[in-house]
Specification:
The complex is a heterodimer of chains A (240) and B (378). Chain A contains nine helices and no strands. Chain A has 240 residues and is an all-alpha fold. Chain A has one domain: MetI-like (MetI-like fold). In chain A, helix 1 packs antiparallel against helix 9. Chain B has two domains: 248 residues, Rossmann fold (3-Layer(aba) Sandwich); 110 residues, CBS-domain, CATH 3.10.580.10. Helices cover 40% and strands 25% of the residues of chain B. In chain B, the strands form four sheets. Chain B has a six-stranded mixed β-sheet with strand order 6-7-8-3-9-10, with helices on both faces. The chains are: A mainly alpha (240), B alpha/beta (378). Chains A and B meet through helix 6 and helix 7 of A and helix 2 and helix 4 of B. The complex binds adenosine-5'-triphosphate and magnesium ion. Magnesium ion binds next to helix 1 of chain B.
Amino acid sequence: MRATTSVLLVFAAGIMFSLLLLNNDGLLIQIWINFADDVDFLIRQHIYLVVLSGGLAILIAVPLGVWLSRPYMRKFAEGAMQGLNVGTTVPTLAVLALSMSFLGIGVLPAIFALWIATLLPIVRNTYVGIREVPGFLIEAATGMGMTRTQILLRIELPNALYVIFAGIRTALAINVGTVPLAFLIGAGGLGELIFTGIALDNIEMMLAGAIPVALLAMLVDFIFLQIQTWSISRGVNPLR
Amino acid sequence: MIRMENLTKVFDTPGGDVTAVNNVNMEVPAGEICILLGPSGCGKTTTLKMINGLIPKSAGKIFIDGKDTDTVNPVQLRRNIGYVIQQIGLFPNMTIEDNICVVPDLLGWEKAKSRKRAAELLELVNLVPSAFLKRYPKELSGGQQQRVGVIRALAADPPVLLMDEPFGAIDPINRAVIQDEFLKMQKELKKTIMFVSHDIDEAIKMADKVAIFKDGILEQYSAPDDLLARPTNDFIASFLGQDRTLKRLSLLSVGDVKFGEEYKVHGEGDLANAIGQMKELGHQNIVVTGPQGRARAFLHLNDILGKKGVIEEYRQALPAVANVKEDLKTAVSTMFRHDVSWLACVDDDGFYKGYITQKAISHALSAIYRDEKQNTLR
Ligand SMILES: Nc1ncnc2c1ncn2[C@@H]1O[C@H](COP(=O)(O)OP(=O)(O)OP(=O)(O)O)[C@@H](O)[C@H]1O
Ligand SMILES: [Mg+2]
C-alpha cells in the first residue's frame, strides 16, 4: 500500500517533469525564473491557511466527534450527524461565499470557511469510528474493571483511530484543494497565480500556481499517510 | 464463594415487563465450578452479568466471599472477578501480552511481574510465549484466541471467575482439549467459577454443580450425576434428553465399577485353581498375569473344564484392556468395538487391577434407581 503510493507519486512527478522540461523548451525552468519570488511568498500564505484551518479543525473535530459518541449523547447525536451530512453536501465555494457574506473579505472568513469544510468529515469519521467499536469490546472492558475514561483512551480511540485518520486525510484533501479559492475572498495564497493566470490567459503563471498546489496536496496526504501507517497499532491497521 | 439471595431481574421493555431472572437462590462453594444451563432466553447471561454488575439487579442480594457486592465499588469489584465474555473480546489494538495484562495493569502491578505472568499463563494453555506474546489477536486462530480469553481472566489471580460460554466458539475436538486443559488448571488453582453453557455434555464433564434454568426460574441445582439420575421434573428430564442414563457413563470411571482384583492366575499355575477362582468370582474368565503382575492373557472356563496341563497351553491373548482412569463411556465403546462383554483393567503401567463387565456397568448405572425404589417400598 505504502509502496504503491510512493511509486505513484514518483511516477506522476516524473511525467510532469518530462512533459514540462523536455517538450516545451524548458517551460518549468522559465516558470521558475519568472515566478520564484511570487511562489515563495504565496506558498507561505497558502501553507499558513492550510495549517491554521486544518489544525484548528482537527483540534475541534476530534473532541466533538468523541463527545457526540458518548452514550448520554445518543438521542441527540444521530440528529447532529444528519445535519453534518447535509452540511458536507454544500459545495465549498458556497461555504466561502456564505462566510464572506457575514465576515467580510480577508483571511478570517477564508479560515472560517476552510475550517467548517474540514471539520465535518473529521467529526463524522470520529463519531462513526468510535460507534463502530463492537459493543462486546466495551462490555469486556467494563467487565474487567476499566472506568469510562480508560475505556475511551485504551479501547475506543485506538480501535477507531484508523477511521479517524481516514477522515482527517479526506478533510485535508478537501482543505488543500479549496485553499486556492480563498484568493477569491481576498485571503491570498497560490490561488492568486492560478486565477490571475487564467484571467490573463498566461499558462506559465497558472502553472506556477497549480504545480505547487498539486505537490502540496500530495505532500500533505503523504505525511498523514505516514502518520496513519506508523502511529496506529498493527492489530487494527490494514496498512501494515 | 458466590451466594445469591432472592435475585431478580425485571427488564422494562416497550412491550411490557420481562422477568429475566425470577427470585433465584443459590450458592457456589469456594473452589467449585457451577454451570448455568437451560434453553435460550432463560436468564443465564443475565444472572451472570448481575454478579459483576454489568446488569443492575432489580431485587435481591449477591454475596462474594460473604461480602455484599452492593457495598463494593463496581470498578473495584470487577477487577477482582475474572470475566470471559461469550465473544472472547480480545482487544484487537493490543498485543496478546497486553491483552493478558489488562487487569494487572489496571491494578498497578509492576510491568516486569505482569509480563512474566503473561508468559507463564500462555505456557499453561500450551501456547509458546515467545511466539505469541507479541502477536495481535487477529493473528491467532479462534481456539487460540479463546484460550487467551480464559487466561486473561486469570491474569490477576482473582478468586472468582465468571465465564459466558467460554468454549463455545471452538470445534468439538479442540473444545475437548481446552476443556481438559481448563480442568487441569482448575485442579491447581481452585477458583470459584460460574459459567454459562448450552452444552449438556460440557456441563456434565466440567461442573461440580449444575443449575438448570427455565424462564428465569432455577429449576434444579445439583451435582451432574444427581441431575442425570434424579431429574426433579419432566422439563429437566426432557431437557437432559432420553439418553441421560448413557450420559452418566462419562461421569463414572472404570475404577469406580471394577471388581475382583485379587482373582488372577500365573502362567505356571494349575488349572484346578483357575476353575476354583472363576466359580468363586462368578465369572467365566480369569486374567493371567506376568511375573511382575502385568495383565498378559486370559483363560476361558469352557477351554479348561475337564482338561489337564498347565495354564500356558490354554491361555488366549487379551483383545483389549481398560485403563482404571478412563471413563465408562470409553470402556463401553472398547467393549463394543471388540465385541466382548468384559475387559481386564490395568493401571498406567499395565499392572492388572481387576475386571469390568457390562453387567457391572448396568448395575452401577441403575443402582441409584434401585435405591430409590427400595426407599419408596419401605
Ligand atoms: N437488555 C434487555 N432488555 C430487555 N430484555 C432483555 C435484555 N436482556 C435480556 N433480556 C431478556 O431476558 C431474558 C433472558 O435473557 P438472557 O440473555 O439472560 O438469556 P440466556 O439464558 O443467556 O439465553 P442464551 O442461551 O440465548 O444466551 C430473555 O427473554 C431476553 O429477551
Ligand atoms: Mg446468554
